[in-house]
Amino acid sequence: MEYPGYSIYYSEKSAETIEEDSLILFDFLTNECKINNKDIIVCGRSIGTGPATYLASKRKPGALILISPIKSLRDTVKNLIGPLQYLVRNRFNNYERISEVTCPLLIIHGQKDSLIPFEDSIKLCEKTAGPYELVLPENMNHNDVHIYDDFFEPIQSFLKRHNMLNFKEKEINIEDFRKIEMRVAEIIKCEEIKKSKKLYKLELNLGFETRTVCSGIKAFFTPEELTGKRVILVTNLAPAKLCGVESNGMILAATVKNEGNTEQLTLITPEKDIPLGSRVS
What is the largest CA-CA distance in the chain? Predict the structure, then answer.
């Protein structure tokens, strides 16, 4: 949604216009495009959390995601210049409106945010009327974020827990399956990646070559537990650069939830001691 007065949207700049536009857009999607309101995820960042919270308080989206949210515009000014806050009209009052939000709420707020204190997000969570999750990355500030650790992973996990990523998988035929090359490999080295809290850098021996693979399994295993373990490696996956490291492949694993509803991960390993590089089919 574009803000009035920016780009090609020629209109008066005001908080009221922005908030009204959010309702118009939501109603267009649900009434004209026939999109189920529960399939709409509302997301806002910083001052953009104002219209996002307003929309979620007036309509019933599937979820609300707030990133580095403000309590209100006046509170943000207070944090910066103190008593002069009263020169600013109290717009985008998330603290008052959040009590009318009943949909699932995810708030992500960095603990090193010097513009908007993360304690404001704690107060917002305490006042919301629906279920909420609060993620407070230790090294995230207002503008310096890690896309995977701070955004992608917590948002994906949140949406999965609230059954908003249950898309029907597209069927493949046997020819598609044959294109996937999987082989037995052994993890011979495991290192931490300083830029990531989730990823390990793994070196795998395929018998005829070694591969470097980045894997988001750091929360489940220590390097000592992984070193020497035989796994199944997808070897013809296109290379991808993660946190500055080129990853060439993907190891297979399965996730389950224990009695405490927390995720556990199990690596897929060969049942018997078969030669490295053996093709899996």
Answer: 74
Number of Cβ within 10 Å of residue 145's Cβ equals: 18
- Alpha-carbon 188 to chain mean position: 31
CB 240 within 8 A of CB 259: no
Q: Which residues pair with 240 in a beta bridge?
A: 247
Q: Which residue has the tokens 């009943």?
A: 102
E strands, the chain, are: 41-45, 63-67, 105-108, 132-135, 182-192, 200-205, 210-215, 230-234, 240-242, 245-247, 250-251, 253-257, 263-267, 279-280
Reading the block at residue 99, the tokens are 């009590």
CB 43 within 8 A of CB 91: no
Long-range own/partner contacts, residues 219-227 (CB < 8 A, 24 or more apart): 220/264, 220/265, 221/265, 223/190, 223/191, 223/192, 226/187, 226/190, 226/200, 226/202, 227/187, 227/188, 227/189, 227/190
C-alpha 163/C-alpha 182 separation (Å) is 30
> What does DSSP say about strands 279-280 and 182-192: parallel, antiparallel, or unpaired?
antiparallel
Tens digit of each residue's pLDDT (9 = 90 or more) over 162-210: 888 766 667 889 999 999 999 999 999 999 998 788 899 999 999 999 9
Tokens of residue 111, six digits: 């603990």
Q: Are 193 and 199 within 8 A, CB to CB?
A: yes
